[in-house]
Write a structure and sequence with these properties.
single chain, 321 residues, alpha+beta, Alpha-D-Glucose-1,6-Bisphosphate, Chain A, domain 4, 9-stranded mixed β-sheet, 3-stranded antiparallel β-sheet, 33% helix, 29% strand, elongated, disordered C terminus
Length: 321
Amino acid sequence: MSTPPPIRPHENNLVTASVTDTGGWKRVAGTVREPISYFNKTANNANWAKAVANVDASASLVFSYMFYMDSYNSAHSHVDKEGAGAFRKVVNIPNSRSMFLLHLVRFGVTVSNRIFSTWFAWRAESDGSFTLAFTPLEDYDDKERVAEMNALVARDPLASAAISAKSRGFWRFKPLAPTVCEITYVLQVQLGGTIQKQLLTVRTKLTLGVVQATKDLFERKGAVVDAEVRTAFPSPPPLAELNDEQKAIVESCRMLEVESGVTKWTSLASSSPFVDMWMKHTPPKRGERSVAIGKATAVIDCPVLEAVGESSEASASRAAL
C-alpha cells in the first residue's frame, strides 16, 4: 500500500495494546533444532503461543501477503481445511487500515463448529517493520458495522449454529535485509464452550503452521539469503554514542583479554595453520566453578562489516542450539 490512509486512534490503540509483552515465554520442547522457533506461556489465565522465523522476502511483501486475505489462495486454503461450503467472509473497511475476517472452523462430528469474527488493523513502525494486530470483532468501535457483520453470520445456517470463538494477538514483519525479514506470530485462542485442552493445543499448532507455510512459499537458496543479510548488516555505532549500560558491556568484554597476575594467555595447538589459539585460566577457589577463556585470531579475506555480520549470525545459530 504505497499511500495508506492515516492510522485511526482506535487502530493505533489496538496495535499498541496487542504488542505489549511481559515476557515469560518458554521454548516448546523438541523444537530447538527446527528452522522455526516455537514458544508458549500462560498469562492472565490464558494460554499464548508464538512462532518466529526468517522469511526470504521483504517485510513489506510478506506483510501484504498476510493482510490481503481476500485472495484466491486464502479462499482455496479455507476450503481445503474446513470443507466446501464452510462460511468465510473478508470485509475491507474503506479509507482505513482495518479489515474483518469471519470464518467457520470445523472440528468434526463430536465437537461443535466454531465461528471466528476478527478485526485486523496494521501499523508501520519506525524501524521499517509492519505490525498486523487482531482482536475479536466486538472490540471494533463502530457498533453498527459490527452488527452488520453479525447479521452476515446469522444468515448462514452452519455459521449461525456454531459456537462463538475468539482469537487475539499480532504479526510482526521486521526487515533484516532488502529481501529478507523476520516474522513473529503471537496468538491466543478462546474456543468457547466445553472443549478438551488437548484439542485446543492441536488447533493452535495447526494455526501456527501458517508460519511454516509462509517460510516455504518464499524460500530461496540459503547462500544467497545469507549474503544479503551480511551485506545489510548495520554499521555499529561509535563508542561515544553508546549509553552507559552498553559501554559497561563493552568494557567487561575487553577485560576478558587483559592479563593480570596468574591469568596469562597460554598458546594452544590449533587445527589450522591460519588460526592462532590461546587459553587463560584462573584457578578457582573452594566451591567455585573452574572457568577458562579462549581466544583465536586469524586474517579473513572479506570486509570488516561482512565478517561481523557472519560472526553474529553464527553466534545466534549456536545460541539457538
